[in-house]
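Note to self: keep these together.
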Amino acid sequence: MTKKIGNEEKYVTQVELEYGIGTGIRLSGVASGLVSVQEEQETRLERGIGLDDWGKMDMMEKALIVAVRRNRIAMQNIQTEAEIRKSEREMNKSRKR
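Structure:
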């Protein structure tokens, strides 16, 4: 999934949000590019997959489930940002009247 920004296509998970809220908390994986235990378990719990079933799953299947989750969250964030921008435009229009 990509979003066009200017003349460039960016993956939705790499789009920088103007209205993103930073907590200063950073999850880290064991190594660069790996999924953190926190994210893996959040994904598993959201899907209602038990620990035994998760442990039996193929790594590629787990990776795809995590990727789908990341894309869903990124698209929700981009949608929310678009709604904030629209609200600001409408507010500015009504102030000018």
